[in-house]
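Appendix B. Chain record.
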Amino acid sequence: MRRLIPLLTLLALALPVPIAAAAPVSARDLLAELRTAQPQRAGYDRDLFDHWVDADGDGCDTRDEVLIAEARTPPGLTGRCRLVGGRWWSAYDDLLITSARRLDIDHFVPLAEAWRSGARRWDADTRRRFANDLDYPLALIAVTASTNRSKSDQDPTAWLPPFGAYRCTYVASWIAVKWRWRLTVDVLERGALTVGLSGCGRRALVPEVRRAAIGLGAAPEPDAEAAEGQAAAPAATAAPGGDDPRFGSCREALAAGYGPYVSGRDPEYAWYRDGDGDGTVCEGPPAAPAPSAPAAGDDPRFGSCREAKAAGYGPYVSGRDPEYAWYRDGDGDGTVCE
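Structure tokens predicted for this chain:
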């Protein structure tokens, strides 16, 4: 029941408030460190993530541990961790629930999303630890089964909790879990997360988050039509004392979800060449799509309205906004990127 103390702190009030922690971290800063990459969907199977497990052998599996930790009114326990009674708050839809059977345990970052954004390269032990992460209080959450299934494996581009007051906390938590497990974001997801943090103030803070240890394994064979151009996971040298694996180049490290490394902070910095001398290696590609250079005062120019909106731009009106001319007005109403 390792989550009990931090979760009681997090869930002390029914309405979302800035997350209290000894050393809060800005989700905006964590987002800036997430690497942007195209999702890799091929090969996913939920059974590749072993859950729910009884890691400490006390008779309660991960689902039970989360329910016990998050209960507003503690349930009784009978037999081998059978829960009786109890009361829970479902943050996604702001409901108080009195039956554990109505609750699902949601992976804040769904297993399929984790697979698409880096977990396909992990070994079985790392996937099991991700699926049962009781060491970080934001990784798992008890919510109504209906909202969990509505969310499915969608990222914040496509789904946010129906309870609007919780959305800042939701977006910040998503970012923290992705950072903890070195998962990537795609271009549209980064835009949605950036917009989602707008106006959040202290609700964009998350409890101190530490990197999880990542073990690499052979990625399953991709589907035939997706196989072209997908390289096997690069070989890495075991590193001492909790450091990241040592790769032959920054390119290989980035492909496996590692980096960036900062001089004076990360021992891994010494392993790679700092070509631009900025004190950081393995930065990866730019965080967002490179828009065309705008005219003075204009917004950046994106490849489509979808990209512009994901980054928080638009709408543009004919005769008022010069950006209107950059995009197709499909319905002819004089406004684009609504």
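Further analysis of this model is presented in Appendix C.
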